[in-house]
Amino acid sequence: MVTNLEAALTPWVAQLKDRANLPLLLQWGEHPAPGSGLRLGDFEQPRVVIKVRKAAAVPKLLSPSLDSLGEAYVEGLIDVEGSVDDILEMAHRLAEAGSGTESRLTRIVRHFQHSKKSDQEAVQYHYDVSNDFYQAWLDPRMVYSCAYFENGDETLEQAQLKKIDHILTKVQLRPDQRLLDIGCGWGALVIRAAQKFGARCVGITLSQRQFELATERVRAAGLQERVEIRLQDYREVQGPFDCITSVGMFEHVGLDYLQGYFARIRELLTDDGWVLNHGITSTDANDGETSHGGGRFIDRYVFPQGELPHISTVLKTLQAGGLEALDVESLRRHYARTTGLWSQAFEAAGEQLRALVDERRWRIWRVYLAGCQWAFEHDEISLYQVLCRKAGRQARGLPWSRRWMYPR
Questions:
Q1: Among this protein's residues, is 146 annotated catalytic?
Q2: 3-class secondary structure for 377-401?
Q3: Catalytic option among 184, 243, 372, 388
Q4: Distance from C-alpha of 235 to C-alpha of 314, rounded to nearest angstrom
Q5: Which of the listed residues 213, 247, 352, 379 has the most CB atoms within 10 Å of its CB?
Q6: What is the pLDDT along the chain (408 residues), one digit of tens a residue?
């Protein structure tokens, strides 16, 4: 195996060393001697070591992309040593150096067919891993979406609570108003809306485990009269609602279904109601996936059938669906920080997490969280909050300024 691997990889290593000069060492065998192997650059100590465990890894390495490298790691064909930040940097530099025609300027656009059944299966694949699994690296409220670091020095728990309050303040939620939270997760937003703002809330999710824990948390908070958690598709909900929030959910809707999604929200909204859509967006103007195969990896292993629209597509489809955008706020830096803290917590809880899920699942989420931090940091993806009302309303009912969003 050693002779064959070395023969197959030596020309590739020489080419990459000339093209990229990476502080990366490639090893194989059960117990390689320290420092032995092929060097992909000129260095004294490697920042990353790739250990080839199976010969099936060779084709993945010879045509490196974020998809093929991620697959090799997830499927146990290779092991990787180094800090998460260094591993992600080396993976991107490998993909860049080894790419043929694909680049950040040629990002693939894909469309999927969505149905209630396929959407439910996709959501359950991602979210029904284990509540204990998510509790190990999320904040205590288990808020699985971008936090809001108002000053930049908040803890994750503080920033997640600020995010929820920021959203509920934006939609001007009032006591006894009806709030619908589409994709309510483990219930943090609806519980806060009832406790602090006095609202009457409905939270919907397609995840069985989220539904069970969110229902339990509502009961523990004594809010059964104010908050209802449902295992329900947004297309099956009956209104009206004074406020509607959708946080980290519309990524599952699909590019071809966004107009219908926003039209359904409009149907559920009172005439003077408010909507806030908080979601991840592509930074490619044509709705393309992240570059170098990152999108393919996420679709295969993390978010089946997930599709990210550019913010221009969001604004166009919500207007076509009968909503008017009144405020658009980018939180890209906030999500880079959020995913960075998630990744740190995930690394710190490594042994606990490996006892909760199989090795393959652990590797998937490890790569995914670290990769998300890199993607937000480097403008591959973004995050926007878009505040809306029904389109066609008279201007005299609109606010003069944004002052109400930032109470003192």
A1: no
A2: HCCCEEEEEEEEEECCCCHHHCCCC
A3: 372
A4: 19
A5: 247
A6: 455 677 778 888 888 888 889 999 998 877 787 878 889 999 989 999 999 988 899 888 888 888 889 999 999 999 999 998 899 889 988 888 876 544 444 545 555 555 555 555 555 555 557 899 999 999 999 999 999 999 999 999 999 999 999 999 999 999 999 999 999 999 999 999 999 999 999 999 999 999 999 999 999 999 999 999 999 999 999 989 999 999 999 998 999 999 999 999 999 999 999 999 999 999 999 988 777 777 788 877 787 777 899 999 999 999 999 999 999 999 999 999 999 999 999 999 999 999 999 999 999 999 999 999 999 999 999 999 999 999 999 999 889 999 999 987
Q: Cβ(77)–Cβ(53) under 8 Å? A: yes
Our CA angle for 376, 137, 146, nearest 5°, is 35
Token output for 370: 């670290």
- Would you tell me the crossing angle of helices 258-268 and 311-320 to the nearest 10 degrees? 50
- Please identify which residue in the block is written with the tokens 């930049």: 152
Torsion angle (degrees, nearest 10) of CA 245, 313, 406, 374 = 100
